[in-house]
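Colleagues,

For the teaching module next term, I've prepared a clean inverse folding example: a structure given as tokens, and then the sequence designed for it. I'd like students to try predicting residues themselves before seeing the answer, so please don't circulate the second half yet.
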């Protein structure tokens, strides 16, 4: 049997970028990206694919088995992880999408998204270490003092140093208003930071000499709850070379991503500096959120892709009943379902990344605002729906191996275990659903949702398959109206159905992605015709699931 491995689907990635989403046209309209063309983008992605398949993926299984260890108070990552990080830095991959003014490559978020899809698919545990780098750079860029920027930004952008995001405490998980870590200002402008954090990814490791912790904390006399949170930059090594009083007291033993150090951290009167304004810590972190949540959604896509391409290979090799199991109708359908969702999700993830590029770079402020509004609606859907599909897809794929899927050496059981965390961290999927429905659609983002539906409508009228998309658009509009009506009398109603509303919206977006794919296919190209066939399969066999979600929204709204 062929080994469990990752081949980045480069041809499909380029097809989505160039033909389905026509990103090169967008780059032309954005002065910061106008020099980029598809050939260059394809070459960057081909290099990324060589790194992920050649360097990262071979470390995935061994890294899972070896895991991280705490030795004399310091974290040791699995063998090969630190060398892979150095190769990544030497290749110029960190902060790919940071502007050249700050030492980055100035490539679009879109290409960074494709890179992270590959990294997560090949080795999710390792990918946790650079996962927060872009967000940390953005936060510093927009909220850091000139001095902090000068000291930390260049080394973060180059990847010489890495970043950690320290929010969670035992009593403060989804509800960060309960954070107790204290920060006391000193006369020299620094802070004394004291407190304990749990579940901190990459809180300590041996990949870089310094780790820049962005710590959510509370200044003296700060208001209670989330309005009293501030953000502090606390490096593990101080600018004068001394170690800061930042300690890793333990590592969590967990279901998956064993290669990622999940640390119990203690800040013992550690030296730090305020990032952004006092009591505006959450606002400062907000910038990290859209990109970070998109990247977690990409982990779902990466796992789904890894699971489906290996399931397909296995199903053609495994013989039962005198033929490959891939030819059994039930398995054929499972494989096509997985492929359709993976290919549709890819279109959605890349659309989300393109909106981030537009929001950052478009010369017209109105276009920037509209793109940001769409990104803020897409983000919770991509995070929650993408990770749910990643885990569900890994489980469905595992079934293709039968009993062999359940034992360790075939690889899919690691994908299933690794995929599960993405539904929990970076704001649980339940919190994403509430963010979408309660905070955004029933809040001020109603018009932006209407604009998004309007935009999706174009693909419904352009293809014969469009009726399925039209039905979804109507279902979403009706569901939102029903929730609005119900919420007026029963404020709890949206909270009861937020998960279903998000899942319904995810399916609606998939319907659009499949129609847009059918529309983008050029006649006479057999490989592209197969993309259309897969998309049509999704419309016929996966989309009906949406009805359950919309039905439950209507049901609960009527309770
Ligand atoms: C491997 C790993 C890595 C992590 N990395 C980091 C990191 O780098 N930095 C960091 O700061 N944190 C990190 N976390 C923490 C993670 O972000 C939290 O676990 C997550 O935010 C949920 O908090 P909690 O575990 O306390 O669950 P709780 O907040 O206790 O929630 C438990 C359940 O209740 C649900 N729930 C809670 N409130 C509501 C509500 N209002 N409505 C509906 N449902 C609700 C949740 O969705 C969840 O299903 C990590 C966690 C893990 C396991």
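(Answer key — instructors only)
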């Amino acid at each position: 049997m062929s080994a469990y491995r990752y081949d980045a689907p480069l041809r499909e990635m380029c097809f989505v970028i160039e033909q389905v989403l026509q990103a090169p046209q967008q780059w032309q309209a954005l002065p910061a990206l106008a020099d980029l063309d598809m050939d260059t983008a394809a070459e960057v992605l081909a290099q990324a694919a060589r790194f992920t398949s050649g360097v990262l993926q071979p470390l995935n299984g061994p890294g899972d088995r070896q895991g991280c260890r705490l030795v004399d108070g310091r974290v040791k990552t699995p063998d090969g992880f630190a060398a892979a990080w150095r190769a990544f830095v030497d290749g110029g991959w960190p902060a790919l999408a940071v502007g050249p003014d700050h030492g980055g490559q100035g490539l679009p978020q879109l290409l960074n998204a494709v890179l992270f899809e590959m990294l997560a698919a090949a080795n999710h545990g390792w990918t946790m270490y650079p996962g927060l780098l872009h967000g940390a750079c953005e936060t510093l860029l927009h909220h850091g003092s000139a001095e902090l920027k000068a000291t930390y930004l260049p080394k973060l952008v180059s990847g010489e140093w890495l970043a950690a995001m320290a929010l969670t405490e035992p009593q403060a998980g989804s509800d960060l208003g309960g954070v107790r870590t204290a920060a006391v200002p000193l006369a020299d402008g620094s802070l004394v930071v004291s407190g304990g954090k749990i579940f901190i990814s990459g809180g300590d490791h041996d990949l870089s000499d310094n780790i820049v912790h962005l710590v959510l904390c509370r200044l003296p006399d700060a208001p209670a709850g989330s309005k009293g949170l501030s953000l502090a930059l606390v490096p593990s090594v101080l600018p004068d070379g001394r170690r800061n009083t930042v300690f890793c007291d333990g590592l969590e033993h967990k279901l998956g991503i064993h290669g990622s150090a999940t640390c119990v951290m203690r800040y013992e009167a550690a030296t730090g500096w305020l990032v952004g304004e006092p009591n505006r810590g959450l606002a400062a972190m907000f910038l990290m959120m859209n990109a970070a949540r998109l990247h977690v959604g990409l982990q779902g896509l990466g796992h789904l892709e890894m699971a489906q391409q290996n399931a397909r290979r296995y199903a053609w090799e495994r013989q039962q009943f005198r033929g490959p199991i891939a030819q059994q109708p039930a398995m054929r359908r499972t494989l096509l379902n997985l492929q359709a969702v993976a290919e549709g999700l890819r279109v959605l993830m890349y659309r989300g990344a393109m909106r981030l590029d537009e929001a950052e770079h478009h010369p017209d402020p109105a276009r920037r605002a509209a793109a940001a509004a769409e990104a803020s609606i897409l983000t919770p859907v991509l995070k929650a729906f993408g990770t749910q599909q990643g885990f569900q897809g890994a489980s469905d794929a595992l079934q293709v191996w039968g009993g062999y899927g359940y034992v360790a050496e075939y690889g899919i059981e690691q994908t299933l275990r690794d995929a599960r965390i993405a539904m929990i961290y970076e704001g649980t999927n339940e919190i994403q659903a509430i963010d979408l429905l309660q905070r955004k659609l029933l809040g001020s983002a109603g018009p932006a949702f209407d604009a998004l539906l309007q935009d999706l409508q174009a693909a419904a009228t352009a293809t014969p398959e469009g009726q399925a998309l039209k039905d979804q658009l109507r279902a979403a509009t009706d569901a939102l109206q029903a929730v609005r009506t119900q919420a007026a009398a029963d404020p709890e109603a949206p909270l009861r159905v937020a998960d279903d509303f998000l899942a319904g919206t995810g399916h609606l977006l998939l319907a659009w992605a499949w129609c847009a794919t059918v529309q983008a296919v050029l006649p006479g190209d057999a490989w592209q015709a197969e993309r259309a066939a897969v998309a049509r399969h999704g419309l016929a066999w996966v989309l009906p699931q949406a009805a359950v979600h919309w039905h439950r929204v209507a049901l609960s709204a009527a309770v």
